[in-house]
Write a structure and sequence with these properties.
Order of helices and strands: EEHEHHEEEEH
Distance between the termini: 55 Å
Helix content: 40-55%
Number of helices: 4
Shape: flat
Strand content: 15-25%
Number of strands: 7
Strand order of the largest sheet: 3-5-4
Largest sheet: 3 strands, antiparallel
Length: 179
């Protein structure tokens, strides 16, 4: 219905058809799998500390998604806000105000651009904090997540309000409204 393209991987010469409705980012499943495995080995061997990790997903409420849909440059700030929230939440859970979390975050914007744009973060986070001397302090076994969810939601809203006010002020200066 929407057409297709014939795609050939220049490395392994695998050839197949891709429908234009396909949302895949990598065209060749064979090469994509290799890249995924190499990246996983790189993270495990060279980046991540040898401590337990958790996979966290930080999603936005539907009503906030359009702000990021039409202002894509704001997406990078989601990682900063998420890291601040994880740091504060972990510090309060462990009781170490100087310790820091270790996290690897990726922004995903899954979904059709016009229909169900869904920006969210995938974070691979050490399951505790590192003190200034390099010691690791694990999170308690039982943790309650709703405070982290609420903190993230509030900080994203505060960021969007502040960003909108800054944008309005900048537009006012451009047009001479504040002169």
């Amino acid at each position: 219905e929407k057409g297709f393209a014939r795609v050939r991987c220049p490395e392994c010469r695998h050839e197949f058809l891709v429908a234009f409705s396909c949302k895949a980012r990598w065209f060749c499943p064979s090469c994509h799998q290799k890249k995924v495995l190499f990246f996983g080995e790189f993270l495990a061997g060279d980046v991540l500390a040898p401590v337990p990790h958790r996979h966290w997903i930080l999603a936005l409420p539907k009503m906030l998604r359009p702000y990021f849909k039409f202002h894509r440059a704001l997406l990078k700030d989601l990682c900063r806000i998420a890291h601040q929230c994880l740091t504060e939440y972990f510090r309060s859970a462990v009781g170490l105000p100087e310790a820091v979390p270790a996290a690897f975050m990726v922004i995903h914007t899954f979904g059709e651009y016009l229909l169900d744009f869904h920006p969210h973060l995938h974070a691979l986070v050490a399951d505790g904090l590192f003190d200034p001397q390099g010691g690791f302090h694990p999170l308690p076994e039982e943790i309650v997540l709703w405070p982290l969810e609420e903190m993230f939601r509030r900080r994203v809203i505060a960021f969007l309000v502040a960003n909108q006010a800054a944008s309005a002020a900048a537009k006012g200066k451009e047009t001479g409204a504040n002169a």
